[in-house]
Write a structure and sequence with these properties.
Number of strands: 56
Number of helices: 17
Strand content: 25-35%
Structural class: alpha+beta
Oligomer: single chain
Radius of gyration: 32 Å
Amino acid sequence: MPYEPIRPERLQQMLNHLREAIYEPVAELEVTAWVTPEPVSYKDRMTGTKMTLVHGERWGSLWDCAWFRFTGSIPDNSRKEDVVLLLDINGELCLVDSEGSPVQGLTTVNSEFDFSLGLPGKRVVRLHDMYLSGSDIEVWADAGNNDLFGKYQGGTLKEAVIAICREDIRSLYYDVEVLLEAAEQLHAGTARKERIYQALYDVSLQLTDFSPELVNQAKKQLDKPLSLQGGDPVLTISAVGHAHIDLAWLWPIRETIRKGARTFSTALRMMERYPEYVFGASQPQLYDWMKQHYPALYEQIKERVREGRWEPQGAMWVESDTNVPGGESLVRQILYGKRYFQQEFDLEMKSLWMPDVFGYSASLPQLLKKSGVDYMMTQKLSWSEYNRHPHHSFLWEGIDGSTVLTHMPPEDTYNSPAAPRSIAKAEREYLDKNVSSHALMLFGIGDGGGGPGEEHLERLAREKNLLGLSPVVQEPSWKFFERLNEERETFQTWRGELYLEKHQGTLTSQARSKRYNRKMEKALRELEFASVLAARLGKTYPCEALEAIWKEVLLYQFHDILPGSSIKRVYDESLVQYEKLLSQTEAMIAETYRYLADHISHDAEASSGTVVFNSLPWERREWLRANGQWHNVLVPSMGYTVIPNVADSGAEDEVASGIEMLAETPKARLDVTVLERSLENDKLIVKFDQIGGILSILDKAEAREVIQQGQMGNDLRVYHDDGDAWDFRHDYSANPGKLLNLLHVQELRDGPRIGLVFEYGYGESTLTQTVVLTEGSRRIDFETAVDWRENGKMLRTSFPLNIRTDQVRCEIQFGSLSRPTHRNTMWDFAKDEICAHQWVDLSEPDYGVALLNDCKYGHRAIHNVLDLHLLRSSSYPDPDADRAEHRFTYSLYPHQGNHVQAGIYRRGNELNIPLRTVSLPNQEIGKLPSSQAFLRPDHANIMVESVKKAEDGDDIIVRLYETSGTHANTTLHFGFEVAEAWTTDLMESILTALPIDKTSNKIALSFTPFEIITLRLKLH
């Protein structure tokens, strides 16, 4: 007699019936809500619009908030232990105790989610004594009318009932679920697969109803297949509970704070029920919000951290974007992030936790190693569209040669359901299983989903060492990385950036945020330098103000804010804050420089003069206009000089765009004719066509044409772009785009500056661009103002150059890297839109051209064309993205030699960091001379990135780096007396003492290519 064929779909039906039988509703709860447009505190919970609700009634609109009160009574003849509440308000809910402290988070079962990772809803509430008074039930909960991803799901009361939980059925359900899915993951024909199916089939025959006797009998029948274990494991999977929380995205920042409370309180409740559960969470900013807004919850978190069951993760203040932020910003992300976890939990963070960031700068490995961070975790590279990254475990080498051990969970998600399919996929897909015995699993539901639910933990309890699957151990990620590090010598090395072949639109989206970020980074650099100088003269260093400003700037560098991929409200709020921060910082800079000016000695003749400050580490000769007069000034390295008789208190000071000035001012020549428009100074002749494009740039000294013959430079074009904030079509340039309409041209004559002002129109938008040449300068500036009102369009400019090279040099944080200008391979093809900071450069060995900018990041370099992405106008998730007024400057800089010989890093910094001026006071007596350099490296390739007060103590921190990718020996000269000097790591911990030449007040330093050196100075 043959065996009865077993049909897995019937076993699935049994599983579905079990799920439906776990909870039996027995009574409705009474529901009252007090609705407000924004969150209110627990003590003000009854101040909103009062509503009494029944099933199906609507209580609010998107982003509405409410305090809900659920009341009822435990039914007679029911054990309290068996009673649960089932709550679903079509939104997110945070249950609180009698003091208003979060207890548990709930999420609507209708929430948008990738259902292949499981079901997102959390609706079950176990009755705690805090909710009971005898048999009476009262539960208060703080509600948000949005789902996990900010979507509006109707705002109706979906469920509010008292139910009886059949614990025996719930346990049997997970037994069946794990075995059934384990069998699905096994190869056809294996004995293990057939035995599991047979056991489940036998149970299905006997389980004619769900009486306690039959349920208990079924569980006993499944004990054997659940108890069978594997032999010696080839691969062990480390599982850590996870809840990736975007600090803003499809919801405002204020909702993230509440999402954090819902998620963390749920994690704490799960820990009470599952003693093996280990949960991890990153981002000190999120912890700090809990400390501020939910102090009782925060104390519970700290207790679990002390137990070792809650793992603070990651080394940065937030999970920051790493393409757009400047080098010092990334240092501060790590500095503030590590210090917070050290101070709050006495823990040293050894790993960078970056699961969802849109590509990783090649400068990161050095920053991590110099901060004591040995490991990095991500999974985002699995999203690449053209090429598969060849490793899950590998050594990542940065531009300076530093390496960090990097792991990507082979399941390619940070929302693992922790199901048998998860374990099977991890083993099947792990690209390094030939040399590694360890892989990481991150399980749970993020973005307010509460992290792991009971389903995750019930599965893991059955999967520890289940025959047919790799064993799984719940443990913190630091233990996993320590074991992975033992295999370090077997891993391959990936050198250079970790480029994500997706989301290139985020290099340009929300251009105003990117501009503010650049301006804030430069302003903070200026303020810290000025404050160090002023502190030497008695002014208090503004430690607290600087830290507060920095931390808010770091918050906005979160990987869904600065890249431009959040909803409109996020930018409506952050742009207002950016303006306040920039105004505050600029006011502090002006005040600090005025304080310094008060201490400069000058004679009566200079009493109406101006002090010019230069925060860059080289002598600068530039044109300066003050009180209507132009002067060619020479300002020392990281110092100042006094110009007599140029300014009064009401004058506006302006720095000309030029550099490399001549001692005298030959008259500049400006030709504007009907047939030809041209600009000429002592370096260049620039000719324009009738629509505003550049026909020719002649380098007079080299007798060399810069623009490719027959092509047009500064080719402003509008392309179709129907993408969202993240992406635009890779083949957008197959359509040549549309030119702007030239409406008007007028000439500019202003001392050493000459130019043409072009006014363009396109659709509903206008663009005014002043093209400027300054006497003595090779730099052509394109000062641009745009009122951008287009939908589904992108604005770009390009320069086809008379240069032949197969590499473009791009500035990144603390250095630069080369990228191909050809598209020979699919890896080259995928890397079409590239990130650069202040400059990109195409050079032959003896000549090149750089494209500079003051706030742009998206570039393209193909063959001999440099292209800059100026603006986009996507409609999701912000329907009004970038429809606004914009101001920016980009510059073309033809030069002799390559980018190193021409000092292009200096040119980029000069565009972004202008000279600053303040008026001299009337008094004549001061401690400082009329001109002084405070810091001066004597090697042309050394940049001083930061000068600041140490985080601990009164020492001074000076951070320098080698810019060109070569070995360099330099002497650093000081304009103040240094008593002691040390090198430190980026956390400012002392490494080695340095000898000081106290006669000349200088120290000698040796740099390897792109090396960052941080000094700690004790001053006399």
